[in-house]
């Protein structure tokens, strides 16, 4: 886990990249009804704006609240690292699913011009995204990014 603000920012950049990329491909595949080169193209085209949106919400809104909630209600500082990782990851993914599902709804409404459907799109996106994002974060993205982060930045090598 990151030890200071600088490590936390680098870790967030890496994690956000993988999560937004994966979830973009997943959502475009759901929307298009298949996975192919056109799906990858559409997901990649929409990726930069989604990534900026996710980074801003993650860094400035969700992460502080999620960590406070996790350490107040779910784990204590003396809890095992594994419990802290799972608690913080869950507390991050759930609000990010709400935020990014809203983003997906806004993007769909901009493309279609039908703003009356925003709430319905948002509400139907939430469970679809939650069933993919939470397991992906806990089983794939979290372990992969933590491993890559510590290979690139061994503990104690990034100054605060």
Describe the fold and architecture.
The chain crosses the membrane at residues 9-25, 45-65, 85-106, 126-145. With 160 residues, the protein is mostly helical. It has one domain (5-152). It has helices at 5-32, 37-74, 81-112, 118-152.
List the helices and strands and how they pair.
Elements: H1 5-32, H2 37-74, H3 81-112, H4 118-152
Helix pairs in contact: 1-2, 1-4, 2-3, 3-4
Mean pLDDT level: 94
Secondary-structure element pattern, one letter each: HHHH
Residues in helix, %: over 70%
Query: Looking at the structure, what is the overall shape?
Result: globular
Between the first and last Cα atoms, what is the distance in angstroms? 14 Å
Low-confidence stretches: none
- What class do helices, strands and sheet pairing give? mainly alpha
Give a short summary of the structure.
It comes from Marvinbryantia formatexigens DSM 14469. With 160 residues, the protein is mainly α.
Features:
single chain, 160 residues, mainly alpha, 83% helix, 0% strand, globular, transmembrane, DUF2798, transmembrane helix, DUF2798 domain-containing protein
């Amino acid at each position: 886990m990151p030890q200071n603000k600088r490590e936390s920012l680098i870790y967030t950049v890496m994690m956000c990249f993988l999560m937004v990329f994966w979830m973009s491909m997943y959502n475009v595949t759901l929307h298009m009804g298949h996975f192919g080169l056109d799906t990858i193209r559409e997901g990649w085209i929409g990726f930069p704006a989604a990534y900026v949106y996710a980074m801003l919400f993650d860094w400035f809104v969700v992460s502080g609240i999620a960590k406070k909630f996790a350490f107040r209600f779910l784990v204590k500082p003396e809890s095992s690292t594994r419990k802290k990782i799972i608690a913080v990851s869950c507390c991050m993914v759930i609000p990010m699913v709400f935020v990014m599902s809203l983003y997906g709804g806004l993007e769909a409404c901009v493309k279609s011009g039908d703003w009356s459907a925003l709430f319905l799109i948002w509400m139907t996106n939430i469970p679809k995204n939650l069933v993919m994002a939470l397991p992906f974060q806990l089983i794939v993205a979290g372990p992969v990014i933590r491993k890559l982060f510590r290979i690139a930045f061994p503990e104690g090598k990034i100054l605060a």
